Amino acid sequence: MGSNNVEWRTLIFPDNHSICKVLPKYEVDDHPLKSTAVERIPRRILGSQPSTGRSTPVSTPAALLQPLSDALEGLDPLTQFAIQETDPLTQMAVEVSVTDDSVNTKKSRERKISLDMEPWSSRKNIILAKFTTSEKLSIVTSFLSEGEKVVVKAQSSAVDKVQHRLEQLDYFEEGSQRKLDLSQAEYVGRIEQLNKELVSAWHSEQRVKALKIAIQCAKVLADSDVLRFYPSKFVLITDILDIFGQLVYERLRTKADYYKPGSKVPTALPEGFTPDMVPESVKETCRNWFYKIASIRELVPRLYVEMAILKSYSFLTSSEYSAALMRLTHMIRGIGNPLVAVYARCYLCRVGISITAPGADTHYLVENFYDFLDTYSQLFGRYVTEELKIQKMPFSTYLTLYTPALDFILQAVASGAPESLLAELLERCRTHENNSLLLNTIMAAFKPSYISSRTLQFLDLISQCTKQDFPSHLLLRTLGLCVCVCPPPAEQRRQIVNIVWHSIGNLSNPEDYISCVEVWVQFVVQYFTSREVNVIIGDIVTHLAPDRAYEQYYTQLKTIVDKIVSNIQDFEALLAMDNFLPLLDLFQQETVKVEVCKSILTACNAVQHTSDPVITNALMFLCNVLHDSVNALTVEDERRQISELLCSVIRRVDYGRDFEQQLSFYVEARGSFSNLDTVLAQLVHCVNTLAVNTRQIVRGHHTRKTGSFVRACAAYCFITIPSIESVFTRLELYLLSGQVALFNNCLGQADACFKAAIGLISELTMQPEDKQKNPENFLISYTRNFLSTLLVVPDSPDRGVLNLVRMLLNTLKSLDWDPKNGSLAYLYLDVLNMLSAMAQENYLYHVDKVESNDTLYGSDPKFIHEIDKMSTLVLAELLSQLKQLGPCRKQALIALELMVKIATLADLNISTIFTLALNLWQLCLKHGNTDTKYLVSPVKQLTTLIFIQNKLLLL
């Protein structure tokens, strides 16, 4: 490879563009950076067709090109892989099958939704969470683990079996035990145990025992000893009854062997079977179930169990449902307790909706509601009053127990009903005293458009209910939910708000007040100006501030703020309201306050730019809350979210051409947000942008004032960058700030930034600490950027020639590089490029208004000599790196690059340089790395020089 004592002499090009013309241009078909992808794979599908010598092109599956499309189409990953590995015909068949299945599933689901109403399944959790109790509960059953076991003896004849079943029912009845003093959690556990016992008995062929468990579960619903818990008890018990009814139905369907016409092989009944497909033996079994249930002595369990298996009527007749539903509706009239009766009607309506086809007779729904109206006076009778005194329950609380059942019944009635039905029900409700419960149910059941068009009428009815026992705030809340979905006529809105807010303002209980405001605030924000919104916010603060009542309602207050910020038309006006920040001060719990501020700043995207000091102060207040919540325990994702929000606010504050005010804002922000690296980096970028904008305005001709300003910007960046923790970020910002300072002809500030960057490189740890950023890879890219900048940076008169370049080289050499990677050798190659460009008479690029070294030195021989000396040192270090690598492919690649650099940038007339280039070329030939197209010109130069030298030797 030759001696390391090779003196470099830079080749000076006569034309500063000639260096760009060394490599020839040639036409290519593809972009060199295009990723390699196989679009069509010619192959023969084995076994699908005889070989013809042709190949079958198979296109790339669409799933490989659009991975998100399969997720949108509902294909699971395993199905995707199965499809991709099949031949095209099978693939098409599978895709069509999957698509058909998804369409059929969707149609089936749509067929089941027969009524436009909230399904019962979504109501259950709400009921269980709302209706709880701390009182002791009791349950009557003989099937829990403590109960006695029943020994079932085998019977011979059919008559004996029937007699035995009746005796067994009586035995279970007599053996019932009363479990006392159970907490709510224990009670729920007992119910779950009964559920498991029922399923276990059924699967162990003990049908009678399963029936008896269902009967005893239904009996629990006749007990209203703890009224507060009754709605939740209804949900728990009816879930068990639903399971029992489904078990009976599936058992009958399994026993029904169906023979298709012309077939002798039995199959299961299809989904939409008719009674004529059912064998007579199965029909007889079905009748036996209903006969057995009809023999239950007590009314409530008899009703509930029959309703549970009502779906099994489909095995007997297709026209029995309407009559059965109406018969059960009339039977419920025999239940004396109005609360038990209304929930029995609710269960009947729920079962009826699930088993009847869309468009079937729904007269039973209306009949159930009218039956409730006929017995409505019982709610206020002496029996109920005495029971409430015993249980110490307020009458208003008692009335709310009816709302889940009544809401479901009336929503079923109102679903798809004309508006005339609403008028009819309102007229019937007027005839009843204490009709506030009915009024609330009607508003919750009918379409919001029907209710909102009669808002004033309902407000008049609500005003007449103030002295009734049903909570008036619930009426206002229900009405508010309707008008938020469908607004009333525009000419009535102001009158409506005045009436409503007068009523809400008179609510003394903070819980009642906040429940109404939580709903109505959306209506006010959507359809009124910021003045009305400000008044409402002030009213909220006034009501909740006394006795720190707000501490109990953080969830509702957060909902109110979310509705305000998501529906406000003028976000800047919201931030400028004098009552808005006092509303935020109600959030004394830090975690809640942080979430509220995050939601506000997230919605702040509507604010493009602002220079209003009031709005700016409000935004800074919100940002300070988020910043102060960050501590050592804050997770990285939370820190990132907060940083992004703060950066967004910083970018939105814009004072136009008042650059000094803008810089003052950035100074204030730096003092407020010193704990977040991302925000500090954003501030540095903003100040650099400010300096660049200043230069563009003056078109590079700085005045005394603008010159001082851009120097202040450079000083801001220089002071701010050391506060950032990440070394990588600091390095990038030092270089960027130095480039901006150089752009503004602030040579001293630029020199300080570049020196700080070089000093920081020495602190860089070369061992990767973060998988996302490898120090060596980062430093290679960073140094190349740095070298391209140093080309146009003029030398300081206080220091020697190429002082910054020399400092950078010394720093790079001092780092602990991995010798196997050859990273330092590649950097030395880049340094040779830069030094060669620096030796030219005219540089390839300049910074406007900045005199680079080509102007300062004018290709002075002493300057060129200094460049050659530095190039010689770099070359020696580079050859030393090659020796450390040893014989390997990477050594050959670096040698190849160095040979190209020597051939294109150095003076080959120098014998030592020529010999070195020749040795490097031979090293490349030895390793076989000579297939690069750009070697044509360098090799041509070497060949020419070899020919000339040989000819001279002959002479």
From TrEMBL:
**SUPFAM superfamilies the UniProt entry points to:** ARM repeat
Secretion signal span:
none
| Swiss-Prot/TrEMBL GO biological process terms | endocytic recycling; protein transport
Q: Which UniProt keywords apply?
A: Endosome, Protein transport, Transport
Where primarily located? other
One GO term of the cellular component aspect? endosome
Q: Where in the cell is it found?
A: Endosome
PANTHER family xrefs: ESOPHAGEAL CANCER ASSOCIATED PROTEIN, VPS35 ENDOSOMAL PROTEIN-SORTING FACTOR-LIKE
What family does the database annotate?
Belongs to the VPS35L family.
What is the recorded name of this protein? VPS35 endosomal protein sorting factor-like
Q: Which organism is it from?
A: Ignelater luminosus (Cucubano)
